[in-house]
User: What shape does this take?
Amino acid sequence: MDGLLEQLRAGLPAESLITDSDVTASYAHDMASFCEAGTPAVVVLPRTVEQVQHVMRTATALRVPVVPQGARTGLSGAANASDGCIVLSLVKMDRILEISPVDRIAVVEPGVVNAVLSRAVNEHGLYYPPDPSSWEMCTIGGNIGTASGGLCCVKYGVTAEYVLGLEVVLADGRLLTTGRRTAKGVAGYDLTRLFVGSEGSLGIVVKAVLALKPRPPQQLVLAAEFPSAASACDAICRIMERGHTPSLLELMDRTTVRAVNKMAGMGLPDTTEALLLAAFDTPDPSADLAAVAELCTAAGATDVVPAEDAAESEMLLQARRMSLTALETVKSATMIDDVCVPRSKLGAMLEGTAAVAEKYDLTIGVCVHAGDGNTHPVVCFDHTDADESRRARESFDEIMALGLELGGTITGEHGVGLLKKEWLARELGEVSVELHRGIKQAFDPLGLLNPGKVF
Amino acid sequence: MDGLLEQLRAGLPAESLITDSDVTASYAHDMASFCEAGTPAVVVLPRTVEQVQHVMRTATALRVPVVPQGARTGLSGAANASDGCIVLSLVKMDRILEISPVDRIAVVEPGVVNAVLSRAVNEHGLYYPPDPSSWEMCTIGGNIGTASGGLCCVKYGVTAEYVLGLEVVLADGRLLTTGRRTAKGVAGYDLTRLFVGSEGSLGIVVKAVLALKPRPPQQLVLAAEFPSAASACDAICRIMERGHTPSLLELMDRTTVRAVNKMAGMGLPDTTEALLLAAFDTPDPSADLAAVAELCTAAGATDVVPAEDAAESEMLLQARRMSLTALETVKSATMIDDVCVPRSKLGAMLEGTAAVAEKYDLTIGVCVHAGDGNTHPVVCFDHTDADESRRARESFDEIMALGLELGGTITGEHGVGLLKKEWLARELGEVSVELHRGIKQAFDPLGLLNPGKVF
Assistant: This one.
C-alpha cells in the first residue's frame, strides 16, 4: 500500500491523488442499486495521457486492480470500487481538443461532460446526438464505456455509432490508437467498437474522435393519451411500419403518468393508461405529427395534442424527463431495469411486466424508449422491508427473463456491470462467454482492469 | 488429401463438393490485381449451418486451412485460395429468412445477393442502404466480411452500421450467436462488429440480422462541372460545412470524365477538370439541389445542371457507374486504390495523386465518394510492360503513403486482404497488430481461417 502510493506519486502531481478515506469513499460507487462496492486504496485524477500511463504501469508492476470512472452516473455498478483498488477517475481530462464542421468530427478527452460537448458543437451548427438522461453530468468517457443511449436513439442511434477512433492506455501502460478520423475505414479489426461498451475492462480511453451530425431543426412534440398500454403499442407499431422516422418516441405507463401527475400537477386525466410522446425534427414537423396523430387515433387514442411550438414541446417533454424522479417518490427505493425487445413485442413485454408487478405485489412503473423497444421498468419498494426488497429483486430478474423469452436483451443501454453479471451468460451462451474471456486475456492478461465486472 | 475428401463427403451431399481442378481453379481468386492465388484442394458449397459446421470440424481435425468466399467480387484478394485449402463458398446459402417492417430488420443467409435483398425489402417499403458497385453480384456475407461501402454511405453509412447480430460457425465447428434483433443492446463485448470486416479470419458467418431503413423518396441528382479539382473540393467542403445531407456526393476527375466521355459520348466539354454529382432523397430534393447549386457556383463551377426528374437523374448517375469500366479501356490493366482521407484533405489528396501520376509517368483516373473523402485512384497501365507494371505498383503504394500522411486510411471500403497486408501495420502500429493477433488466437487458435490474409 505504501509502495503503491509512493510509486504513484513519482509520476503524478500531489493534487491528483486522493487518499483521505472520507473522500475516497465518495468514489466507491455509481448510481446502481443492489450492487456491492469495496473500499479503494486510492483515487487518482490524472490530467494527461502520460499520467494515465504512469498509473497503469504502476498498477501492472504492483498487480493492483484499477477501476476506471467517469461521473459515476452509471446504473449497473460498473464503476464501483473493489477493495484495495486504484480508482482512476478521468473527470479532470476534460478538454475539447477540436471541432471540425467540414469533417463533422470532434476530438475530445474522456472527461468532457456530454452536455458541454453538445453545446460546444451546437455553436458550430453541429449536433452530437447521444443524450442519456444524465447528460448534464455524465462524461463522454463514461458514455463510451457503457455504450449509452438516450431519447435520440430512435432516429440517431447510440453512442457506439458516433465513436470513430480512440486513444487507449492499455493495462500495461502502452498507448493504443484505434480507428480513424475519416468518414470510412476498414483497416483491420474494429477495435474501436470493441472498447465501446466494454465497461473499462479492456483499457482506459484517453481520447476519442467522435462523429457529428448537422444540427437538425428544432423538434416538435405530440402527446397522445391511450386507454390501454396495448393500444399505445399498436400505435407505435403502426408509426414504425408506415416508415416514419420520429426524433423521439417515448411511452409512459399508467403508474408513471400518475406519479408525474401527482408530482407536477400536469392535469392528465386519471383514465390515461398510457401516454405516448412523438417528436419530429424534419423540415415540416407539423405534417409528420399530423400523420402520426391520425395513426394514434386509428389505434384508439382518446386524445391527441400536438405542440404548436418549441415551448409547448418542451412542456410535454418535461413529463418524460421527470418520470424517474416522480417514480422515486412512490416508495423509499427504486431499481431501474433496462430490457430491450423487438418493438413488435413491446405489447407483450408491457403486459408481462404488469403481470410480474401483480405476482410480486409491487408497484412497477414503466418508461419506454418506445421506438427502440427499450423498456425501463422501475421497481418501487421499501428498502427497509426485507421481504419487499427480496420481492423487488426477484421481480427485477423475472423481467429480464421475460425480455429474453421475447427475443430481447437484458440491457438496452445501461450495461452489465455488477448488476446483471450473472445474467450475461444466460443471454450470450457459453461459447460467447469463452470468446469474451479470450479477448479479455489478449488485452489485460493480468486481469487488472475493472475485475469482477461484466462477466 | 483423400482423407480430406472422404471426411468432407461424410457430412455433405455429393453436389456440394467440387474437386474437378478445371472448376476449382475458377474459385481461386477474387477481382483484385497483383494478388497471388493458390490451388484449392476442394471447393465446398454447403446449404445448411450443419454442413458448414461439418466442414469446419473436418478442417480442424485435419488441420486444413479454409478460405471462405462470397461472390468473389472483392478487390483486395481476401477471398483468394491458398494451396491445398478448402474453399468454402457460401453462395448456396441464399435464403431471405425474414423481413419485418415493424422491427425494421431482415434475417438472411450469407449467400443472398445484395440486389436481391434490396429489391425484396423495397417491396415492403423498406431500404437496405449498403450498395457497393458490385451490388448486382456480391453477397451479404461478402459485404459483411469486407465491411463494404458504396455510393449511399455519405448519408446512410457502411455495411457495419446495418449488422445487428450474427450466427457464426467458429474454426472448430461450434456455433456462436452474437448481437441481437433489437434496435439497441449492450450485453457484453461487441463481437458482431468484430466479425464485420474481419475478412473471414475469425469465423464463418452463416446468418445475419440486418437493420433496415424506411424507403426514402426517389433521389434527384445534380451535376456540376468545375475548372479544377481544387474548386470542386472547395464546393464539397462548403456543402458539408453548411450542414447538407446529400444521399450521394461523387466526384470524377478529368481523366475519368474524358474516359467516360469517350466511351459513351456524354458530350461533356473537354474543359471540365472535375465533375461533381450531388443527390438528395429528401421530401423536397429540388430545394436542396438549388442550395447546393448555389454553393457550387460560388466555388467556381462553370456549369450546374440539376435533373428535373428520375430519368434525368439516372442518366447523370450512369456516368459515375461506368467510370471504372471506362478507365479500364485506357490501358490493358488497372489497379484500383481505396484511400480515404478526412474530407477537408480531399483537395490535397487529389493534388498529391496527380503529382504521383506525373512522377511515375502514368495515367491515374480518380473517382471519389466525395462526401466521405474516399478516393479510388485507378492506376492504368500496360500489364505486358514490366517497367510500367512496376511503376504502377510503386505509384499505388505512394498513394497509400500520401493518404496516411494526410490523416487517412489505406482502405476506406475495399479491405486489406493480400493487397494491402504489408501496409496494415504501417497504419495500425505494432501495439494494435499485437492485439489483432491476440484476438485471432482467441477465435482461431490453429490459424486455419483464411491464413495469410489481413495481417
Notes: Chain A has a mean pLDDT of 96. Chain A has three domains: 2-89, 96-214, 220-405. The two ends of chain A are 28 Å apart (CA to CA). Residues 386-405 of chain A form the longest helix (20 residues).
